[in-house]
Design goal:
Number of strands: 17
Number of helices: 12
Radius of gyration: 34 Å
Structural class: alpha+beta
Order of helices and strands: HHEEHEHEEHHHHEHEEHEHEEHEEEEEE
Distance between the termini: 75 Å
Length: 476
């Protein structure tokens, strides 16, 4: 590593050369990290800054699912070999120790480190000191300058740092050396940042032979949902977002997900949301493991059921009964496309409402809608200019033309005057519509159609231009 290409060609005349593809390498590494999620939900990509790429897993509490640490490493090595991927794998008490031994090897196997195979190693609990003492100081993940400074003083091995006073190391080399040494020996915490953010609530189902039939996948998904809901119930929580992952025999990962407007742990409801996406899964050669994760959850304490309970766990409550429907709509249309209007304290039509999640707990008392009671149910995205004939100075129009069609006014009511909000600028799409007084009129034409028109500005004999008329909405 680090050899010039010309030197490599001189040593190996028939050397095959492949151009670097950093983006493709990053995608392949991310896909492999997703695949490693079959062994632990806490997976992170390491070394993106220094170019020494690797994948880190926190397998605490996971190894027993595979028959122990040795069986886990053996299974991982066998599968990676089937994908033609060479890897060095180590399990140790600390992330730093595993990183060091995986990259620099175990120098002395009689000091507590034992091999699970030529490419795997397991450091026994509490034996980090012995396993690391023969490794070079570069295995501490030091910067090149710090490693060179230690080598110049004859400190080339990690074991040579054990008996040196930490204060002396810090005074001579700064905090980096002592901090990395403490991390590698497991004395300093080194949290792992998973990708994506992990969760404590997940259920797992492994198969002796890969399954690919849609009915089998649906049946397995039902079992996973039951297990997850039981776990959530024990912890008094409910899922807000779930994700089903299929780990396929070819090393790829298929996934589907669903979001919920309100926390739930009702198996029938969660399974129905997943069933709608199951046809999109491509099992290929089959899945040998399935994982269901609650990627987001909220507290959901047990509640008293009332006499009108339908048996589904939903109380006789408007939001409770509406939540499953909203979840299904969001599942089909996208959660961002299902929302409701909430009032805003503004008399300007463009700013009087905003979109919020359908079951948000924001205050929407009737008093807040009072100033909108006489507004139309439908507003145009932008007010459109019309030609109008009206009485001067404040009369409603008697005739107006919109989109080439003339409308003779039968009845009119108004005006409702809306002045600019002087305490801040009007946030409207057209600067031509800002900063002017508007007089709104409710109009009904001879055909019974009802419109909401306004005059921008006031009649002024001294003005060079007459006010313009706009149509802004329609009444039911």
């Amino acid at each position: 590593m680090g050899m010039m290409l010309t030197d490599a060609r001189a040593l190996v005349p028939g050397l095959l050369i492949q151009a670097m593809a950093p983006e493709a390498d990053a995608r392949a590494l991310a896909a492999l990290a997703d695949w490693c999620g079959r062994y632990s939900p806490w997976v992170s990509i390491d070394g993106q800054d220094d170019g020494q790429y690797g994948i880190c897993l926190d397998v605490t509490g996971c190894a027993h699912l595979f028959g122990g640490e040795e069986a886990m490493l053996a299974d991982m090595a066998r599968r990676l070999q089937g994908f033609d991927i060479q890897a060095q794998m180590t399990i140790a008490d600390s992330l730093g120790a595993a990183w060091a031994i995986a990259r620099y090897g175990v120098q002395n196997t009689r000091n507590g480190a034992r091999y699970g195979g030529e490419e795997t190693a397991i450091v026994a609990a509490g034996e980090n000191h012995a396993a690391l003492e023969g490794l070079p100081v570069a295995a501490l993940r030091l910067s090149p300058g710090a490693a060179d400074a230690l080598a110049r003083l004859g400190l080339g091995r990690i074991g040579e740092l054990y008996n040196l006073p930490p204060a002396a190391l810090t005074a001579r080399f700064g905090r980096e050396v002592t901090y990395r040494l403490e991390q590698t020996l497991g004395r300093a915490a080194e949290p792992l940042s998973p990708r994506p953010a992990s969760t404590s609530f997940w259920s797992r189902l492994a198969f002796a032979e890969p399954i690919g039939h849609r009915d089998h996948i649906a049946r397995a998904a039902g079992q996973l949902v039951d297990d997850l809901c039981a776990m959530l119930e024990r912890e008094a929580r409910g899922a807000r977002r779930i994700e089903l992952r299929l780990y396929l025999a070819d090393g790829t990962v298929q996934r589907i997900g669903a979001g919920l407007n309100r926390a739930s742990r009702q198996p029938a409801h969660l399974l129905r949301l997943l069933d709608e996406h199951l046809p999109s899964l491509e099992a290929g050669f089959g899945a040998d493991l399935m994982l269901l994760i609650a990627t987001q959850s909220d507290p959901l304490p047990a509640g008293q059921r009332n006499l009108k309970d339908t048996g589904t766990g939903a109380k006789d409550d408007g939001d409770e009964n509406l939540a499953p429907l909203l979840d299904r709509l969001g599942n089909h249309l996208g959660s961002a496309n299902v929302a409701r209007f909430a009032p805003v304290q503004s008399h300007l039509p463009e700013q009087a409402v905003r979109l919020v999640p359908p079951l948000s707990r924001e205050e929407d008392a009737a008093a807040q809608w009072r100033h909108l009671a006489r507004r139309p149910v439908y507003l145009l995205p932008r007010p459109e200019l019309v030609e109008a004939v009206a009485e001067v100075p404040d009369g409603p129009p008697v005739l107006f033309r919109w989109r080439g069609i003339a409308h003779r006014v039968q009845r009119g009511d108004g005006p409702e005057r809306i002045a600019p909000e002087w305490w801040h600028d009007m946030q409207v799409d057209s600067a031509a519509l800002a900063g002017e007084t508007r007089d709104y009129y409710r109009i009904e034409d001879s055909r019974g159609q009802r419109f909401w028109l306004y005059r921008r500005g006031l009649y002024d004999s001294a003005a060079a231009q007459m006010p313009d008329w706009y149509i802004h909405g329609f009444f039911a």
